[in-house]
Specification:
Length: about 475
């Protein structure tokens, strides 16, 4: 049985206990981080004179060979036929294979460290890489959104509150709201990555070690900003994972909101969008169906990420210092949340890139939804009518239009004057969708000039993140 302990024990571990305790079934994906961390640790031990240069080089060569063989498939992490492993975890797998290959020198690798700080390091390295990958994916999605904003700065549509048509806006303005959500997601993940970028290796089991380790050297070798400051916190901290899963939960919530709107817009009742065939599915019984399954799946997978966060919060909620075996339960929810987000973001981006927006349908919906009613009231205010009186006049005018089946701008001037003598020929220009939108020029508004400034600023921000 390949394990890193046993001298204290007089019996072999019960087979069921071993199966319950082992984590290699899921932590095997940390092999590269485990080997990378071990190589940095070995270089530090050699540099400090704790290992001879001969042993140090033998360890480094052995670890490089193990990494190469794992990635080539020559050294399987699990038995291919049974799908099980004799090893307890990825740490014992690497160390046992190292000892098999280089002998006693391999037994010296673990000098000055514990599995507690070793796994803490592995998870930080893995999560840091995941954060970088997801940040890159978010930037890709933001590029798609910004391209669509540039294309549709004059695509008129109704804006909604309470799912009721409210005021006219543009598709660019609507999409810009999601750009801001995802920009914040990018910032949150960046902040989380910065906070997690401290190296726990050298903390030992909980109280450091008597060996003269150079923790700062290891931190630098592995690209960390610094080493962690408290050895007990180093091995028992999972805040960075909780924060990262919280960030992913918010990100996935934003994708879910976006998906929900696309699902609604894709319905026969709205017809604002046409999903590309490559990102839709059909029905096994209803030949006319074209279903927005990608949106629905993204919306559904949000629940997985929420559940992963709650699982980890619950596992950590009552743990005393320092390390407890409960913390082994951090990996599966973290891996699942990361896998889910990494699968959803690029797929959603490509689906969004291929969508056809039905401009005419969106514009007609804005016109027939009386989204310019507020502007009509403002027009009367400009003619000297008190706002509250103007509000009532336009309310009665809308009721009349509903009975007539017409938009406000479709009524002749004589008919408009029945509701207020202040209406003049210039009302038609004042309440056109173009005028209603483009007069709104304050920062963050949908007016053409305001949107040009916002798009340019957003493009510059994206470029800054990529430089």
């Amino acid at each position: 049985m390949a394990q890193l302990w046993g001298g204290r024990f007089t019996k072999q571990t019960d087979a069921a206990v071993k199966a319950f305790n082992d984590s290699i079934g899921f932590d095997r994906r940390l092999y590269r981080q485990d080997i990378t961390g071990s190589m940095a640790h070995a270089r530090m031990l050699g540099r400090q004179g704790i290992l001879t240069q001969e042993d140090c080089q033998a360890i480094l060569d052995g670890l490089e060979g193990i990494l190469k063989d794992i990635e080539s498939g020559a050294l399987p992490l699990m038995e291919q036929e049974s799908g099980i492993s004799e090893y307890e975890d990825i740490h014992s797998f690497v160390e046992a294979n190292l000892i098999d290959r280089i002998g006693d020198a391999g037994k010296r690798l673990h000098t000055g460290r514990s599995r507690n700080d070793q796994v803490a390091l592995d998870m930080r390295l893995y999560t840091r890489e995941a954060a970088d990958e997801i940040r890159s994916q978010v930037l890709g999605l933001l590029h798609v959104i910004l391209d669509l904003m540039e294309e549709h700065s004059q695509t008129w549509m109704p804006g909604f509150t309470h799912l009721q048509k409210a005021q006219p806006t543009t598709l660019a303005h609507h999409l810009g709201a999601y750009f801001e959500m995802l920009r914040r997601d990018y910032g949150r993940i960046t902040d989380c990555r910065n906070r997690m970028n401290e190296c726990p290796l050298g903390a030992g089991a909980l109280a450091g070690t008597t060996y003269p380790l150079d923790r700062a050297f290891v931190a630098s070798e592995l690209g960390f900003d610094c080493e962690t400051r408290n050895s007990m916190d180093s091995v028992s901290d999972r805040d960075y994972l909780l924060e990262f899963l919280s960030d992913l939960s918010i990100l996935m919530m934003h994708l879910s909101r976006f998906s929900e709107e696309l699902i609604i817009w894709n319905s026969n009742e709205y017809r604002f969008v046409e999903m590309d065939d490559a990102f839709s599915t059909g029905s096994s019984i209803m030949p006319q169906k074209k279903n927005p399954d990608i949106c629905e799946l993204v919306r559904g997978k949000v629940g997985r990420v929420y559940g992963d966060l709650m699982s980890l919060l619950t596992a950590m909620k009552g743990l005393p210092l320092a390390y407890n075996k409960d913390m082994q339960e951090d990996k599966e929810p973290a891996f699942d949340a990361i896998d889910t987000a990494q699968a959803c973001i690029p797929l959603f981006a490509e689906m969004l890139r291929t969508i056809t927006f039905r401009k005419e349908v969106m514009e007609k919906s804005a016109m027939r939804g009386f989204t310019n009613a507020t502007d009509a009231a403002d027009y009367l205010v400009g003619k000297g009518v008190p706002f509250r009186d103007a509000h009532g006049m336009i309310g009665r005018l809308v009721l009349h239009c509903l009975d007539a089946g017409k938009a406000i701008e479709e009524l002749p001037l004589e008919e408009l004057k029945e509701f207020s003598p202040q209406f003049e020929q210039d009302v038609y220009d004042a309440i056109s969708l173009r005028t209603c939108v483009n007069r709104r020029l304050t920062t963050g508004a949908p007016g053409e000039e305001a949107m040009k400034e916002e798009i340019a600023a957003s493009r510059a921000w994206l470029q800054a993140q990529e430089n």
